[in-house]
Fold this sequence. Notes:
disordered C terminus
Amino acid sequence: xxxxxxxxxxxxxxxxxxxxxxxxxxxxxxxxxxxxxxxxxxxxxxxxxxxxxxxxxxxxxxxxxxxxxxxxxxxxxxxxxxxxxxxxxxxxxxxxxxxxxxxxxxxxxxxxxxxxxxxxxxxxxxxxxxxxxxxxxxxxxxxxxxxxxxxxxxxxxxxxxxxxxxxxxxxxxxxxxxxxxxxxxxxxxxxxxxxxxxxxxxxxxxxxxxxxxxxxxxxxxxxxxxxxxxxxxxxxxxxxxxxxxxxxxxxxxxxxxxxxxxxxxxxxxxxxx
Length: 273
Ligand SMILES: [Zn+2]
């Protein structure tokens, strides 16, 4: 466990509510032991809305648990739901770990491919490529795979930093954002990184229209490279902001999320950490 992770856990443990208390998901009031058909005494939200069973999971989480729907359908409908109806979709996420790794891997590798494609010439028609033969195509494929993996690893690092960040932020605000819930929010929000690829394509297309502006600034960098670099930076920033915005919406819906109940827990109020 990293130093930062231990610090996040230490701050977390200092807060008053335990990781296993049943909380009102709207205000964080402890509702363990109260009649499950009533309302939260603090904010009036019906208690059934806060019970772990109300978090039925995204289609991807359902697929991991039950095997249906099929992988592509589950990924497509989960991504669509997150982008189209972020608040209710985050509100329905299960607060446990299954599905995090596979979901994150798919989103980050897909974002990596989209980012890698223009740098390996895959999306541009290159007449010289045809004459390079099989070894040329293999080399191109190898560079696509290598750049995809590097891009995905960078995105994974940024996602991990975000996950640590939201747990720090939550602990300081006395929210109970469990580790599993934080990872599920980040995994579901990581579909936002997909926006970076097409924006980079647009940036490169725009840059290619600046073919004439090759005059140098102080003999170091050309105007074209400077504008191109700025456009690519902005394009990646758009992907990052989409991800950040989804994480923000997710944390709002999951800051007091109740993890699934443990089978046979005392009083039915014991929930998984
Ligand atoms: Zn409440």
